[in-house]
């Protein structure tokens, strides 16, 4: 009876370890998703700033560039 109980206990511990590791992975994925979202916002803001800065130059050269582009 000792060996079946030991096998069940080890299986439970193995599943518990996998659960803890899965929780850590989930936390890191959420953190990474937040960083990706923030980086995306910064890139979009920089692209808009660049577009606004380039509009007068493009208008001066004779080509019209829309102030804001919707995609």
How many beta-strand elements? 0
How helix-rich are the residues, as a percent range?
A: over 70%
Number of helices: 1
Q: What is the element string, with H for helices and E for strands?
A: H
* Uncertain parts: none
The Cα radius of gyration reads 27 Å
Structural class determined from secondary elements = mainly alpha
Distance from N terminus to C terminus (CA atoms, Å) equals 67 Å
Instruction: Work out the strand percent.
Output: under 5%
Identify the overall geometry. Answer: rod-shaped
> Which whole number gives the mean pLDDT?
89
Characterize the biggest β-sheet.
none
Write the layout of secondary structure elements.
Elements: H1 2-60
Characterization of this structure:
With 71 residues, this protein is mainly α. Helices cover 83% and strands 0% of the residues. It contains one helix and no strands. The longest helix is centred in the middle third of the chain and has 59 residues. The protein starts with a helix and ends in an 11-residue tail after the last helix. The model has no long low-confidence stretch (mean pLDDT 89).
Key structural traits:
71 residues; mainly alpha; rod-shaped
Describe, in short, the structure shown:
The protein is an all-alpha fold.
């Amino acid at each position: 009876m000792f060996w079946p109980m030991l096998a069940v206990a080890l299986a439970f511990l193995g599943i518990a370890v996998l659960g803890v590791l899965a929780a850590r992975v989930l936390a890191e994925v959420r953190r990474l998703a937040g960083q990706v979202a923030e980086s995306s916002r910064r890139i979009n803001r920089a692209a808009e700033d660049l577009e606004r800065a380039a509009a007068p130059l493009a208008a001066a050269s004779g080509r019209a560039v829309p102030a804001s582009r919707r995609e």
